[in-house]
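Thread amino acids onto this structure.
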């Protein structure tokens, strides 16, 4: 039983005995640093019911607790706050109850309870994983581990975007410009090779478009479309936002030049769909794929396999895994079947052109297309099919978490609502783990322009940075080369993961690689170093420290603060699971480490003369180390025994 649970029972008894009133809830908060106390009861919620002065009410409850509850030593009242000083014995007894529990804070799933499926990664097979994918994978993996630790059965999964025009762009570029290159012949990971051809397609298309546009800028078609665009509400809005101008006759020439530049960007998609040679070829390839043309299917399978092999290497290096894989090329077909079912039930409606929609205007959304007029699926179609297929494959799944960037917030509102309207009870337990984009100091990344930060390259860079800093610190005597390599990777990846996960998922973040590998402050290496320091203490403890220490032992204020911090761990796990936020685990761990380092600096451990105190302090250090290790495991971070 936690301190709050114990005190709640006694305070309810106090209110009943002193005031003759039954209360359901008791509100607690941490005692302010400038007041004496370990925990504070908020008295104000009782004032109305007890019809009294908050100071008097707090005093009467405090006197009752000191007289009747062994855990409460003394109290003080400040305004409407009852500050309680808890006995050393309570903290020692609590510590003795958890010191040998290697999984303290973790809850075992109950038999028969519904499972949660967590989706993350979900890459396209036209490019390697990049910095944005790293945040996605780390968030999804960590949330899955946290939910599991909170007492739920968890399945980790991903949906692989293995079909569509973007995949065909890489395929066509390889066909036209690849000269038979393979991962084996080039020495490149398969995902990088395919990604290079995606960039090559965009480079060739941009060249084709620029030449065409410059040659046809004064043609009637382009001129009339340009003139129409210059008068559109879209362009007027862009002028105000980007150029802080309005379209006026006296600066028409200047604005037409601006318009021409903007129109060149605006017209690009129309050119691709209707006029481009490459655009026509890649759209034909997509049609051939959907019609099952053998040579196109064979090329698709070959290039996708190159990418899958590359992805697996990256996942292994990053330390994430999956229980199942889903492919859009399969699930979109089920989605089309569900749309037909929804049509028959009146959930969807067909327009005159044959396209199928759902009208969500009464729900505060809009009309959403679920099937194009030519019968082809959209993203929504395949997401509907994927969700349904997952529950068919894993019947014990009662909810799902989708780890997807916040640019898809609206998409998931629509998806979840559609699944509810289709009558699936598990649709009430769907959650979009919406996260902000990650950028570098140099700005945003663009896959098609080849300006992304490659995931493999970033992990290698982090390891190299960790090596440089570790060598500068000069504490690697006695390490073999293999041990050094393992340590550099542990520190480098720990720095990367912690820096990514300590930020609230909803926030956009700026990733600074050098700052993340700092051995001081709120960083992964700082916490890893503290864990290694604790292991050093345990190695030097040349005496038996297993036996339970008597609850009558007098403990230092710093020991009490450390135990109080350990007490919080189970609740932090539950809150992190409920909020889908690894940041709560990360920042709790940092607070625990700060508390330990303050304890370490002010209290002698191995130099303590009193044997019972020395044993207790070593046990306390061990428990802190174990909690650091367990907390970091929820973030997917390893901790080194030595640094």
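Threaded sequence (643 positions):
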């Amino acid at each position: 039983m936690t301190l709050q649970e114990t005190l709640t029972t006694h305070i309810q008894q106090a209110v009943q005995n002193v005031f003759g009133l039954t209360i359901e809830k008791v509100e607690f908060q941490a005692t302010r640093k400038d007041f004496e106390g370990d925990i504070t009861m908020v008295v104000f919620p009782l004032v109305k019911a007890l019809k009294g002065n908050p100071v008097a009410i707090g005093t009467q409850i405090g006197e009752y607790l000191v007289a009747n509850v062994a855990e409460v030593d003394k109290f003080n009242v400040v305004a409407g706050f009852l500050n309680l000083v808890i006995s050393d014995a309570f903290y020692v007894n609590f510590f003795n109850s958890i010191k040998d529990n290697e999984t303290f804070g973790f809850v075992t799933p109950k038999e028969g309870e519904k499972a949660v499926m967590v989706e993350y990664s979900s890459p396209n097979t036209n490019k390697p994983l990049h910095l944005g994918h790293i945040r996605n994978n780390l968030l999804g993996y960590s949330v899955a581990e946290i939910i599991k630790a909170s007492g739920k059965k968890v399945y980790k999964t991903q949906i692989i975007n293995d079909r569509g025009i973007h995949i065909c762009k890489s395929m066509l570029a390889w066909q036209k410009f690849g000269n038979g290159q393979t991962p084996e012949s080039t020495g490149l990971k398969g995902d990088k090779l395919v990604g290079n051809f995606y960039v090559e397609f965009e480079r060739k298309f941009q060249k084709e478009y620029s030449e065409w546009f410059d040659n046809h800028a004064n043609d009637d078609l382009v001129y009339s479309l340009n003139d129409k665009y210059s008068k559109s509400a879209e362009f007027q809005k862009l002028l105000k936002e980007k150029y802080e101008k309005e379209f006026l006759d006296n600066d028409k020439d200047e604005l037409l030049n601006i318009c021409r530049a903007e129109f060149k960007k605006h017209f690009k998609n129309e050119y691709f769909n209707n006029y481009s040679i490459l655009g026509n070829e890649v759209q034909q390839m997509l049609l051939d794929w959907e019609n099952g043309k053998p040579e196109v299917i064979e090329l698709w399978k070959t290039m996708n396999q190159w990418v899958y092999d590359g992805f697996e290497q990256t996942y292994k290096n990053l330390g994430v895994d999956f229980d199942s894989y889903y492919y859009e090329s399969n699930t979109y077909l089920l989605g089309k079947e569900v749309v037909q079912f929804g049509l028959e039930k009146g959930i969807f409606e067909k327009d005159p052109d044959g396209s199928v929609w759902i009208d969500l205007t009464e729900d505060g959304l809009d009309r959403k297309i679920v099937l194009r007029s030519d019968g082809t699926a959209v993203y929504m179609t395949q997401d509907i099919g994927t969700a349904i297929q997952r529950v068919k494959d894993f019947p014990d799944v009662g909810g799902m978490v989708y780890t997807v960037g916040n640019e898809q917030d609206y998409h998931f509102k629509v998806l979840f609502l559609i699944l509810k309207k289709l009558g699936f009870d598990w649709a009430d337990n769907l959650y979009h783990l919406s996260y902000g984009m990650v950028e570098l100091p140099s700005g945003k990344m663009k896959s098609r322009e080849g300006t992304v930060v490659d995931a493999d390259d970033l992990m290698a860079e982090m390891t190299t940075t960790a090596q440089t800093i570790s060598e500068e610190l000069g504490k690697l005597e006695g390490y073999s080369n293999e041990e050094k390599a393992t340590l550099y990777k542990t520190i480098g990846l720990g720095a990367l993961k912690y820096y990514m996960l300590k930020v609230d998922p909803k926030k956009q973040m700026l990733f600074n690689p050098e700052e993340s590998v700092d051995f001081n402050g709120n960083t992964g290496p700082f916490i890893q170093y503290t864990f290694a320091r604790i292991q050093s203490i345990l190695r030097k403890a040349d005496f038996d420290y297993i036996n339970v220490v008597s609850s009558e032992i007098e403990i230092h204020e710093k020991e009490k603060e450390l135990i109080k911090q350990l007490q919080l761990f189970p609740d932090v796990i539950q809150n992190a699971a409920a909020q889908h936020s690894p940041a709560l685990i990360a920042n709790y761990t940092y607070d625990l480490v700060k508390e330990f380092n303050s304890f370490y600096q002010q209290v002698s451990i191995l130099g303590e003369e009193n044997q019972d105190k020395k044993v207790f302090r070593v046990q306390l250090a061990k428990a802190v180390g174990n909690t650091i290790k367990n907390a970091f495991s929820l973030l997917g971070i390893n901790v080194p025994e030595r640094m």
